[in-house]
Amino acid sequence: MRIDKFFSTLGIFSRKECAEKIKRGLICVNGQTVKKGDFKIDEEKDEVYLSGERIFYKKYVYILVNKPSGVVSATEDGRDKTVVDLLPDNFKKLNLFPCGRLDKDTVGLVILTNDGISAHNALSPKKHVTKKYFFTTADRYSNEDITAIENGITLLDGYTTKPCKIERIDEYNGYIFLTEGKYHEIKRLFGARKNKIVFLERVAFSSITLGDLPRGEWRFLTAEEEKIFTGN
Ligand code: URA
Asked: Do residues 179 and 140 make contact, with C-beta atoms less than 8 angstroms apart?
């Protein structure tokens, strides 16, 4: 593989940016400074360093974004900005897609990857991956509402939701933990209780959390988080 392809596949930088790093003598392979972007490497065996830091090859990329309101969970959209548009241009060629969807007005954690199998597994209801959301309701919600939602509610389309957990913060705010992801599920659960969700934020996907990542920003998953996501 060409050294510039190596860096672009990892989403580290574009081929053009790679040329600039090479010019500045920042890229070394097996102890030798690379002089040209078409320099060929064995990505599995060769030791690649960028500014003295070892860079390991990975087939897939895993990214966490903090989705703002108004951005859609899609790869392309004729009208609205997508979660993929939140990333720098060098990610465009990597065919990243969001693992699961948040509504346009829901904010928070979305994982983007090009690893279709892991994404499929992570979303499979059989895997029971817990997604944690912070919510705010328009009207007060009661203990009866919590019990009804936690036990599962038969929605207007006849679907009965899986049991879930609610952690109350106060009469309007709380956390809800879901192991499935039906269309508008949280909004429909509270709708069935004659209430309305006015703010919704996904804060965790399994034990992967948003942390202090600002809204609209992105970061790579850590090695530990990748293991959680892929199950490896
Ligand atoms: N439930 C909803 O209603 N909306 C989301 O975006 C996610 C879960």
From this structure: no
Write the single-letter amino acid at 135: F
130: left (phi over 0), alpha (psi -120 to 50) or beta: beta
Distance CA 188, CA 159 (A): 11
Residue ranges for the chain with pLDDT beneath 70: none
Q: How far is CA 105 from the centre of its chain?
A: 16
Q: Is ligand 1 within 6 A of the CB of residue 103?
A: yes
Ligand 1 atom with the shortest distance to the CA of 184: 3
161 in contact with ligand 1, CB cutoff 6 A = no
pLDDT in tens, 69-113: 999 999 999 999 999 999 988 888 889 999 999 999 999 999 999
Q: Which residues pair with 55 in a beta bridge?
A: 48
Nearest Cα residue to 163 out of 175, 173, 148:
148
**Ligand 1 and 184: CB distance under 6 A:** yes
To the query of whether residue 89 is one of the catalytic residues in this protein, the response is no
Q: pLDDT for 214-223, tens place per residue?
A: 999 999 999 9
CA distance 4 to 74: 28
Mean pLDDT of the chain: 95
Looking only at the bridges linking them, the beta strands covering 97-98 and 107-113 are antiparallel
